[in-house]
Amino acid sequence: MPTDKPTEEKLQKVLASIGLASRRMVENYILDERIIVNGEIAHIGQRVNRHEDELLFDGVPLRVRPDFVYYLLHKPLGVISTANDPQGRQTVVDLLPQKPRVYPVGRLDKDTEGLILVTNDGDLTYRLTHPSHGVEKEYLVKVQTKIARGGLRKLREGIELDDGLTSPARVSQLQDGVVRIVIHEGRNRQVRRMFEMIGHPVERLIRTRIGNLVDHALQSGQWRELTTMELLHFEVEQITE
Ligand code: URA
């Protein structure tokens, strides 16, 4: 008779159920010693408690806790990216399931659209919003007129804002007045202030990527959960930054 506690499940089953890979593939990962459970190399048939045990894949924590949720939301214009608004305006949290209680990771201005991550995983939020973790963020920026080469160069090399020089950015003008910019920092209204400084106030700002998270199919106001692989790659990116 198995003597396992009811909360314990086969490791292969847990890893497959969170979408890491098929059971067969997961077995290969275990045999290749790529899975660590509570600091020890895992073995086939091992039983784990998905609520309590720490599981690593290639050294990266696997978030197997079923009580954690990770939503990727395409924030519409006019919605506030805080968990609640004292003035009663619509917030990103209003667009998502009400339980469990979730919080946005970082901010998008009320007048900015696009991707925002919302979760109840405080540890991930803390790490992602910490200034030392500059995950790449990509924006599509619409300004009124074509930006001259000199302006683009300034954006690339760094712009002196009142809170200091911006880090180098990757910038390309896709068509006259439409620019894609990739930055690592997350200062308040940073993109708007950068464009303001080169004499091109932003007319429309859309975040199209956060690290490896992209979804061109998500329409304004729509959301979906992150896949395990997205979460895993996201974590890897944090570690290798
Ligand atoms: N930069 C801005 O200016 N606004 C945002 O919402 C995000 C980045």
Task: Looking at this protein, list some descriptive labels.
single chain, 241 residues, alpha+beta, Structural Genomics Hypothetical 15.5 Kd Protein In mrcA-pckA Intergenic Region, Chain A, Alpha-Beta Plaits, 4-stranded antiparallel sheet, 6 helices, binds uracil
Q: Topology of this protein?
A:
Layout: E1 8-10, H1 11-17, H2 23-31, E2 35-37, E3 40-41, E4 47-49, E5 55-57, E6 60-61, E7 70-75, E8 103-104, E9 112-119, H3 122-129, E10 137-143, H4 149-157, E11 160-161, E12 164-165, E13 170-175, E14 178-183, H5 190-197, E15 202-210, E16 223-225, H6 228-240
Parallel strand pairs: 9-15
Antiparallel strand pairs: 1-4, 2-3, 2-5, 5-6, 7-9, 7-16, 8-9, 10-14, 10-15, 11-12, 13-14
Helix pairs in contact: 1-2
Bound molecules: uracil (URA).
